[in-house]
Amino acid sequence: MEGAKVWLDKSIDIEDALVVCCFPSVGMVSSVVAHFLIDHLNLEFVGGVAHPKLPAICLVQDGVPLPPIRAYAGEPICKLEGVCDKVLLLMSELIVPDPLVHEIVSSLFTWSKEQNAAMGILIDAFARKGMKGGLNGNEPLVEYEDTEEVDVLGVAATPKMAEILKEMDIKLLEQGVIKGMTGAMLSEGSSRGRNLMSIMVEADPRFPDARAAAVIIEHLNKMLPVVDLDHEPLLAEAQQLEDQIRNMMEGADSEPSPSSTSMLYG
Questions:
Q1: Which of 83, 114, 116, 241 has the highest count of CB atoms within 10 angstroms of its CB?
Q2: Which neighbouring-strand residues pair with 124?
């Protein structure tokens, strides 16, 4: 195999789909959100993204080996009437090595255009003011007004996505630097005029931040048929997912190999 390749089960149709992307974020927010969506939307593993230069590693869950970048799909209907009618989730606990980012992102855009996906949402997080993100320099650097609440910011690749963020009461990020997969996808989405946006939440980088993940899930509930939950039960469930993810990631290589600074984190 040469280069990046997106592969899905032949029965999966993503035409007019909302594609939710959860790549590594501060406080493991994206991982907690992804596992919550898999559970509550009854999503099933349907494929992934492969590249010959990705680290030779797999995740094992319930005895099943899974690729580091994987795709999940199911029957949920997007709540944005006339915009999307199904959901596909792309997720990874892997920090994609910088030399592979643009090639993988280009493959994702080519694939999503060929399959006529409707729009995409990138889930990310930024470190609380005064804290370091702990993602080997891959965390977003944003300027924002710190409040007592968990702050949420958005980035829109098109005016249409800016309107959706406004309808969700999410402020647009005024200034910052977003790196890695999220940054590359936003930049590519803007240059191609693709309907893509990122929702970013303030998180504590010292440990998996279930509270921040719960805030993201509450916002996603405006777009997806997630089971409506009060804040406290949602927080408790997010914390349980946090523990499951931490246990699942134990034993992953915590030291970068000589050929890559990428790692699975936990």
A1: 241
A2: 200
